[in-house]
Amino acid sequence: MVSLCIIVLMVFLATFAGVHLATMPQARVETVDPRTLHITGEFIESNLGSAVEPDGSVTVRIVGQQYSFTPQCILIPTDTQVTFRAASADLVHGFLIQNTNVNLMLVPGYVSSLTARFTKPVQSNMPCHEYCGTGHEGMWAHVHVIPKAEFLKLAKQRRRVTCVAE
Ligand SMILES: [Cu+2]
Q1: Whether the bond into 71 is cis, omega within 30 of 0
Q2: pLDDT tens digits for range 56-77
């Protein structure tokens, strides 16, 4: 009876999430070859960091690998639609900006993306939250959310904005 109740509860929760909360499996899956990630395409080193798009939104490209994120320090403007696009060069890593709902998994072979908006300037950390090996606890990056005007000034000077050199 207990196991039957658990099954019925699971079916109810899955139906509730799917129908009422409209939680669906990803409709769109983008793939990327982890073996050539650093040589060709969107995730080459010179293309990583924050980029202003023609529509005014910002795209942040990040690569995770044992045991670091590139770039190590990510700059994000306030009051702007920000799309994170991240990929793993080796195995599964976690992508989490503390105290926000930005939370992804980086699975080798796939592009993980998420859109978010930040309302106030804040400094946060981005630890890897999927155990990825002996150096896992040292794998994290900084996230600086800065006022939009300040960000746009930096974006005029550089093609890709980060706070790595600071
Ligand atoms: Cu990791």
Answers
A1: yes
A2: 999 999 999 999 999 999 999 9
What is the C-alpha to C-alpha distance for residues 25 and 30, in angstroms, rounded to an integer? 14
Q: Give the Cα separation of 101 and 53 in Å (integer).
A: 23
**Is the predicted pLDDT of residue 93 greater than 80, yes or no?**
yes
First to last CA, the chain: 61
Structure-token pair, residue 36: 């050539």
Contact 146, 78 (CB under 8 A): yes
What six digits make up the tokens of 128?
A: 């890897």
Give distance in angstroms: CA of 90 to centre of ligand 1: 9
102 Cα–ligand 1 center, Å = 16
Question: Residue 64: helix, strand or coil by DSSP?
Answer: strand
Q: Tokens standing for 155?
A: 């974006």
- Expressed in angstroms and rounded, the spacing between residue 85 Cα and the centre of ligand 1 is 16
Predicted confidence (pLDDT) per residue in 7-57, tens digit: 999 999 988 888 887 766 666 788 999 999 989 999 999 999 999 999 999
Distance CA 82, CA 145 (A): 11
Q: What is the pLDDT of residues 115-150, one digit of tens each?
A: 999 999 999 999 999 999 999 999 999 999 999 999
